[in-house]
Amino acid sequence: MTPADLSSTVARAVRRAVEDGELPAETGVPERIVVERTRPGGVGDYATPVAFQVARAAGRPPAEVARVIADGLAAEPGLDRVEITGAGFLNFTLAPRAAAELVREVLSRGPRYGYADDALEADPVCWGPTAGFRQRAVHEAVVRILRSQGSADGAAPPPVAPVARRDGDVVAAYGRDAATWAALAVPARETPHFDAGLLVQDESGEFFLVRYAHSRAKALGRAATRLGFHAEPGPVDARALLRLLAEYPLVLEAAAHRRAPEQLVRFLVRVADELLDFQHCVLPKGDEKPSAAHRARLALAEAAGTVLAGGLALLGIDAPDCL
Fold first, then answer.
1. Staple 151 to which of 19, 135, 146, 276, CB 3.0 to 4.6 Å?
2. Residue 15 and residue 243: Cα distance in Å, rounded?
């Protein structure tokens, strides 16, 4: 089970509880069930306050509703444990997912990994002549992310703080992609920072870091071809990177729900950091012959590069193969 599956899984458990008479017939299934990463000091991997939503309609204490839902999830594949904390918070510990299975899913879905099954095509947004660069960048990113999660609601984007410099100056000074990155890197209500860091051509600049990590994934594939081997998903010891890939669908869902492209920006930086640390063990060294381990590592690197490319595309930023 991927983290993004949890919302629909919990919704099904609520629906079954109503159908089986464990919850009153008038109990409705919330339109959206929020599942988030457990906060520091919490229990498990993810948590949801859904029992509090359902309790209002059911006329029962949240803890009682949480127990009914937890019982309905007890045999759900992909869940290792379901625990109740506080007054009725449901906490989930996911069963470990095989690396090969996760990597294979990412590679098979390509840039659309993390999209909802009912994802929509992102129609272009029409702007009047007075729309500013940041307004366009934020609103268009929000619409793309929303539609990746199956929502056509792009009519209420967040209010956007103005850019201190003229749009033409910003784009001319830093380039459209770098300026877009800066415009999206902070919450829409905050003023973005346009400075020389956007032009830095080393890993100290986050804009460069993310695109460079993507290009490194592509370079590893080209080098492997020259060495006569190709990517093949398999067991690989890279827990942090695998965890991020599994988390990506939930990141997109949360960014859509909050209309917060900066959450995707922060996530891509984390993926890039982990990929650049991991890249050094992908290719054979010296007289070492390519093995199944190298093929599995290459597949993971390519999957991480796929997530970076897909995330950058949602932000409206190019992901060059060479940098």
1. 146
2. 30
Ramachandran class of 234: left when φ > 0, alpha when ψ lies in -120 to 50, beta otherwise: beta
Which amino acid type is present at position 223? A
- Cα separation, 296 vs 103, whole angstroms: 9
Given the DSSP bridges, would you call strands 79-85 and 36-37 parallel, antiparallel or unpaired? unpaired
Chain centre to alpha carbon of residue 316: 16
Cβ–Cβ under 8 Å, residues 217 and 301: yes
| H helix or E strand, kind and range, residue 91 | strand 89-94
Kind plus residue range of the DSSP H or E element containing 4: none
pTM of the model: 0.80
pLDDT, tens digit (0-9, with 9 covering 90-100), for 41-85: 778 888 999 999 999 888 999 999 999 999 999 888 889 999 999
Tell me the CA distances in angstroms from 308 to 60, 155, 264, 319, one per residue in order. 44, 27, 10, 8
State whether residue 47 is helix, strand or coil: strand
> Whole-angstrom Cα distance, residue 229 to residue 240?
25
Structural element, H or E, at residue 317: none
The C-alpha atoms of residue 76 and residue 216 are separated, in whole angstroms, by 38
Q: 319 near 311, Cβ under 8 Å?
A: no
CA 323 distance to own-chain centroid: 24
Give dist(CA 232, CA 295) in Å, integer: 5
DSSP classification of residue 157:
P
pLDDT by residue (tens digit) across 245-258?
998 988 998 899 88
By C-alpha distance, which of 294, 259, 32 is closest to 153?
259
Q: pLDDT band for position 33 (50/70/90)? A: confident
Residue with tokens 């093949």: 232
Instruction: Name which of 190, 233, 232, 217 is nearest 276 in CA terms.
Output: 217
**Residue 130 pLDDT grade (very low, low, confident, very high; cuts 50, 70, 90):** low
| CA 33/CA 171 separation, integer angstroms | 39
